[in-house]
């Protein structure tokens, strides 16, 4: 189910695969009965995870969402032959899945979780594009590709992102706003890989840790001055642009919302909320 509003397709953070903004946030009903059903469904999923059971995001145990007529079901079952029963069960399951697919409560977030202070981080986006810096020691026709981090950026649509200049950044091509193509070239603009400010902070925090090896053991240590090689990061991202034009060809974990447009799947609020360091 797409939640797009006059959008062709979304692109996502190359570090976390989350959406580039929160303006299209969909929250569920505040009705007490709807909240009870939603949170009961989430609790069922949580317990299934603890038991190691296979997850069913549209758990059929919450029949109160869609209701059933037991008397009619019993009458129908009495007149069925064995083959008809199997066919009807498949049809009932299809109808149930279709109902879940259309139900807005299955495609929205818990309004008490997806608050503005926990989702505003998604709007703080930048992009590391390349610029071509002339080689000082060579002919002026030769250039060296260099990655840099732009100023604040805004995802437009159709794979395009607008970035403002970053004050003091020596490698940016101009002092005006620049348009970049996300992941692959759609519009003949320079390619960039969008990310959230907070995700880059998490990456830099992770890079503070390193292993020191001795002949007898290895120890995990914390660096006081981690180095982030933007050129290497850009090159790595370039090599991971595969089938998708909206994200890297990586396993981002249990995140199901990153479709053609972001889908606010109930029970997956964790993919939208501010991660803690």
TrEMBL record:
Query: Where are the annotated segments for Disordered?
Result: 29-108
Biased composition annotated in UniProt, kind: Acidic residues: 68-95
**The protein, known as:** Uncharacterized protein
| Residue spans of biased composition, Basic and acidic residues class | 35-65, 96-108
Q: Say which domain of life the source belongs to.
A: Eukaryota
């Amino acid at each position: 189910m797409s939640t797009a509003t006059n959008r062709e397709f979304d692109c996502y953070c190359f570090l976390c695969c989350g959406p580039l903004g929160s303006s299209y946030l969909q929250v569920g009903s505040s009705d007490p009965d709807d909240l009870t059903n939603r949170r009961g469904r989430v609790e069922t999923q949580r317990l299934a995870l603890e038991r190691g059971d296979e997850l069913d995001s549209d758990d059929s145990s919450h029949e109160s969402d869609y209701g059933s007529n037991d008397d009619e079901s019993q009458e129908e079952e009495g007149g069925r032959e064995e083959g008809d029963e199997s066919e009807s069960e498949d049809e009932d399951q299809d109808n149930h899945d279709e109902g879940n697919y259309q139900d807005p409560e299955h495609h929205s977030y818990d309004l008490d979780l997806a608050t503005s202070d926990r989702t505003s981080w998604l709007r703080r986006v930048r992009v590391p594009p390349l610029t071509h810096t002339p080689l000082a020691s060579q002919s002026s026709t030769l250039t060296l590709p260099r990655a840099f981090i732009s100023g604040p950026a805004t995802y437009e649509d159709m794979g395009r992102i607008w970035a403002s200049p970053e004050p003091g950044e020596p490698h940016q091509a101009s002092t005006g706003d620049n348009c970049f193509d996300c992941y692959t070239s759609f519009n003949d603009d320079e390619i960039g890989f969008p990310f959230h400010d907070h995700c880059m902070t998490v990456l830099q925090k992770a890079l503070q840790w390193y292993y020191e090896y001795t002949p007898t053991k290895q120890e995990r240590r914390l660096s006081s001055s981690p180095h982030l090689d933007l050129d290497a990061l850009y090159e790595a991202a370039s090599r991971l642009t595969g089938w998708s034009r909206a994200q890297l060809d990586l396993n981002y974990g249990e995140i199901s919302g990153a479709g053609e447009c972001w889908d606010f799947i109930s029970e997956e609020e964790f993919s939208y909320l501010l991660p803690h360091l």
